[in-house]
Amino acid sequence: MRSDDAATFDSEELRIQIPAGGWVVGTVRKPADESPRAVVVIHPATAVPERLYTGFAEFLATRGYVAVTYDYRGTGRSGSPRDHRGLRMRD
């Protein structure tokens, strides 16, 4: 649910290179016109792409929080499961 008077937010891609190869890709959403209250990192459920959390992250950003979402390796924008066949939860 969105309110017409909700604040705006800025969004940018986050890319973290993994020493073993590949990237963890995510999104940082932050309030456009104010200093943030805090940072909230939304850790996805296993094999669930970050886009599922977009609405919640945007809700937080319009209310003064920096919201960070990301895809685990082998999920969504962080790569195909086929490209990460040897990847295990402990990795």
UniProtKB/TrEMBL annotation:
It comes from the Bacteria. InterPro entries: AB_hydrolase_fold. This is Alpha/beta hydrolase. It comes from Isoptericola peretonis.
